[in-house]
Structures are given as structure tokens and as C-alpha cells.
């Protein structure tokens, strides 16, 4: 058993963070934001793709992922936050896409009109609430990693380091 995550998982983790940050900082109202709106939608769609890659990889690597020496409470908290992050990583862009298709008849992304799903109500508020929850959870995740690194001085943060 390695003390580090497989490189594929490490790069996927940090690329996911990049997509989340891009989506967060470009999120306003994509139909009215031109290129910035396209970047927001593209990063959200990438999150769905990354989720679909991440789950099979977790299953593939489940026997080689590092096992950290956590208290029972830390283990429950870590597992709970991780599961919620996965749920929010999938739910946030889905709600965003449904909101987009409720608000506009068509949306061009990289010169291609995205498929349209008929939704009678805008889920914009739900998308925003879930997205903000996702950011809060990601922040807690980061704080926990920093706590492990600087206070507990264990290898939790180093296990996800690309170096």
C-alpha cells in the first residue's frame, strides 16, 4: 500500500479544483456573459466528465489508495465530506444545465448549439445554493488538509501532492 495516491488520481483531483474555481469565478449569468458564460458552462460540463472518470478510477484503485491513521470521528467526517463533494460535483452542473435550458432556447458552446431539455422552471436558485455549498465543502476539505499538514503533521496532504 502506497503512502501517495496514484498520479492519475492526483492530477484528476487538482484539475477538478481548477474547474471548480473557473466555474465559480465565471459564474454570473452565462446567456448574457458571452465568452465568460461559455467558459462557465464548459467548466461545469467538464466537472460532469471528471466525475464520470473519477468514480471508475476510485473503484479501480480502491486497493492501492493510501490508508491514513484517522480517529473514528475523523474517518466519518472525511468520508462524509468526500461523499458530499461527489454529490455536489455532479448535482451542481446538472442543476446549472437545467437552469440554462430553462432560461434560453439555445446556447452556443465552442460553436456548437448545446442540446436543449425542456424544463418549465428555472433551477437557478437551487444551482446557486448547491454551488455555494460545494464551495463551502471544498473549503472545509482544504482546511482539513492544512490542519493535518500543519497541526497533526501527518501525511494526508502530502499523499495528494503531485511531487
TrEMBL record:
Keywords: Cell membrane, Electron transport, Heme, Iron, Membrane, Metal-binding, Transmembrane, Transmembrane helix, Transport
Residue intervals of the Cytochrome b561 bacterial/Ni-hydrogenase domain: 5-161
Needed cofactors: heme b
Entry-linked SUPFAM superfamilies: Transmembrane di-heme cytochromes
Record InterPro entries: Cyt_b561_bac/Ni-Hgenase, Cytochrome_b561_oxidase, Di-haem_cyt_TM
Topology in the lipid bilayer: Multi-pass membrane protein
Keyword Lyase: no
Main location: membrane
Pfam families per the UniProt record, alphabetical: Ni_hydr_CYTB
Subcellular localization: Cell membrane
Transmembrane segments: 9-27, 39-61, 81-100, 129-152
Family: Belongs to the cytochrome b561 family.
Name of the featured protein: Cytochrome b561
Species, as recorded: Pasteurella canis
Amino acid at each position: 500500500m502506497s503512502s501517495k495516491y496514484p498520479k492519475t488520481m492526483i492530477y484528476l483531483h487538482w484539475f477538478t479544483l481548477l474547474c471548480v474555481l473557473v466555474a465559480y469565478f465565471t459564474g454570473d449569468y452565462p446567456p448574457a456573459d458571452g465568452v465568460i458564460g461559455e467558459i462557465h458552462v464548459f467548466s461545469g460540463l467538464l466537472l460532469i466528465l471528471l466525475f464520470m472518470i473519477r468514480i471508475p478510477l476510485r473503484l479501480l484503485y480502491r486497493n492501492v489508495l493510501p490508508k491514513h491513521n484517522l480517529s473514528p470521528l475523523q474517518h466519518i467526517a472525511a468520508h462524509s465530506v468526500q461523499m458530499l463533494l461527489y454529490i455536489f460535483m455532479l448535482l451542481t452542473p446538472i442543476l446549472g444545465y437545467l437552469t440554462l435550458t430553462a432560461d434560453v432556447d439555445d446556447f452556443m458552446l465552442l460553436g456548437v448549439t448545446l442540446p436543449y431539455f425542456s424544463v418549465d422552471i428555472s433551477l437557478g436558485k437551487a444551482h446557486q445554493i448547491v454551488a455555494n455549498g460545494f464551495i463551502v465543502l471544498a473549503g472545509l476539505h482544504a482546511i482539513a488538509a492544512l490542519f493535518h499538514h500543519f497541526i497533526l503533521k501527518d501525511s494526508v496532504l502530502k499523499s495528494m501532492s503531485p511531487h
